[in-house]
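Query protein
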Amino acid sequence: MYRVGTVILCVIALAGVVALVGYGLSMARDLAFNRNEAFTIAHIDVETHGHLMSQSFVRACIPVSVGTNLFDVDIATMKDNFMSHAHAVRHMTIARHLPDTLRIDVWERDPIAWLGGQQRYIAIDRDGYVFRYPARMRRLPMVTGLEEEPQEEGQQMEGLVGDALAVIEYCENEGMSPIVKLKRVHLGEDDALPRGTIQLELATGELIYLWWHRTATKKVSPTADMIGRLNYMRDWIERFDKEGMRIATMDLTFDEYPRYCPATLRQG
């Protein structure tokens, strides 16, 4: 019994020592950092990477001011609050630069297309996230025929929308322009075409029916089959253009497209 009581007292004493040490460390931290005037914010540096947000706008949205202690700033909460409301922002960093500077960097999403429908000027980026963007600032292809329109800003679109973005990104980045300039990408199903066919309307008037073998991955990216069909389309458009002719329609839904690719030419 005596030994049990001794053990209990030792445990209580040890707990008291731990608590005192913890309190002492907390006080030391407060004195060294949170209550140290050397770490009072004198500068808030903001850098924006994009076209929409100004430095003054970001400063106005950040609840911290000159005179605050650097270590009183809850960086994680501040970042989460900002990102939850600024759907046009792709990435943000907030960092302490000792002794007296808070550095904020904001990277905006880069729109790759418009989503057509009732919300006509909702933009979408390469990762499928939707956000508001001034229509006058970009001439982008329109994606139409959505099965479901986005319910809120910041939502990530998947399915056929992801396929459309992969096509748009390839046509934009792989030397397809100016031969191939997309005006509209339509996702609506047509009973006369294979399921999953995407209709491409070019700025020069051509209408292309495109289908390819997909891969079973969540992240949609250009596949070798899709790239082969788009390159085939570009080569034939360029060839006919050099001969003074323009394609009206081209059907790239057949696996035999290098040998059998139905196409019509414009009249006149």
Summary: The chain has two domains: 39-108, 111-265. The radius of gyration is 29 Å.
